[in-house]
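re: ur question from yesterday

yeah so i grabbed the chain u mentioned. its 149 aa long if i counted rite. heres the sequnce exactly as i have it in my notes:
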Amino acid sequence: MIKIYVSKVMNKTILILLLLSSYLIVCSCSTPIEEYQAKNNDEKDIIDLLKRYTEIINKGNTEQILTLFHENGVYVTGRGNVALSREKMTEWKPEDWLYDGKRKFYNPEITLNGNEAKVMVHAKFGKYTTAIIFTLVKENDKWLIMQRL
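ran it thru and got these structure tokens back, copy pasting raw so excuse formatting
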């Protein structure tokens, strides 16, 4: 009876250790956007844009945020998936941008297609993590955000 109990405890301990190890391995594989190794100049410019986006949005500076968006750009909020045009974005206050907490991006995945790009990043907002997808366009040798989902 004691052998069976010890065996069950050992099996549970091993399972818990395996799960914790797996979690630590997955979490340790997060590459902050600042450490991403761009494959070409377009990727470098895109990463620079997203770093500026993070810095500016964490300050809640609407005027500077707008400089990163295309004139037809749209910002889709996490609150009920409301799409904000540039005109509606101008109405936001710093606390609106910071509603979910400061952002930090990890593990960017960039897909280039000529003058368009899709970028998925893992974003940490305050206490939670989610995926964000950016649609970017290149105009006059400058990448701009067309849509942020």
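noticed a couple things. The two ends are 57 Å apart (CA to CA). also Residues 17-28 have pLDDT under 50 and may be disordered.
anyway ttyl
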